[in-house]
Each structure stands twice: as C-alpha cells, then as structure tokens.
Design goal:
By secondary structure, the protein is mainly alpha-helical. The protein folds into 3 domains: 40 residues; 29 residues, no CATH class; 40 residues. It has 4 helices and no strands. The longest helix is centred in the C-terminal third of the chain and has 36 residues. It starts with a helix and ends with a helix.
C-alpha cells in the first residue's frame, strides 16, 4: 500500500510541475503584452474611416476611432477556482517552509 501512495504523490507532483511550466511559458512568451497590443490596435475599418475623415478635412480625434470593449470572464466557477488555488498556495507554502525548517534543523544538529 505504501508503494501506491508514493506513486500517487509522485504523479501529483509531476502534474503540478507540468502545469507550472505551462503557465510560466505562457507568461514569459509575452501573452500579456500581446493582449495589451490587441486592445490598442485599430481595425482596418477604423483606419479607413480615419483616413477618409482626414481627406475630408474633418476634426479628427483618436477617441472616436478606438473602441474599448472589455469582456468579463468571471463567473462562479472561475471565482471558486481562484479561491481554491489561493488556499492551495497557502498550504503548499506552509508545507515547503516546514520542510526547509526541518532540513535546516537537521543540518545544524549534524554539524555540532
């Protein structure tokens, strides 16, 4: 029975590590910057309208051509997921700190 518990624990650690790597890569590849770029970029339609207005000599303001659409993706499931992940983070942090404290005690005791 002990061997299966070890396999399950190892599988969970590997799974969590893979998730961490995936999130790290998405963050480091500039996903956030790309999302910000998409918010700023004008569509072809807006560019054509801007060019026509300039040719006609109209008073031009950028605010007239940039549309701000913000989508809200929050719902009960995502909020629950966020709360769960924050709780997991607290417990994992306590666990890791406990391990390091124990290791430092062992190292300090052995050096005496």
């Amino acid at each position: 029975m002990k061997i299966q518990a070890g396999k399950i624990f190892r599988s969970i650690l590997v799974f969590l590590f893979v998730i961490f790597i995936a999130l790290y890569i998405s963050q480091s590849t500039g996903y956030y910057e790309y999302e910000q770029y998409k918010k700023v970029a004008l569509t072809n339609e807006q560019i054509k309208q801007f060019e026509n207005d300039v040719k006609e000599g109209k008073n031009v303001d950028v605010k007239d051509y940039v549309s701000e659409t913000k989508k809200e993706y929050g719902n009960k499931v995502s909020n629950a997921g966020l709360r769960i992940s924050k709780e997991i983070e607290k417990h994992v942090t306590k666990f890791i700190n406990g391990i390091f404290e124990s290791l430092s005690k062992v190292v300090n005791d052995k050096s005496k």
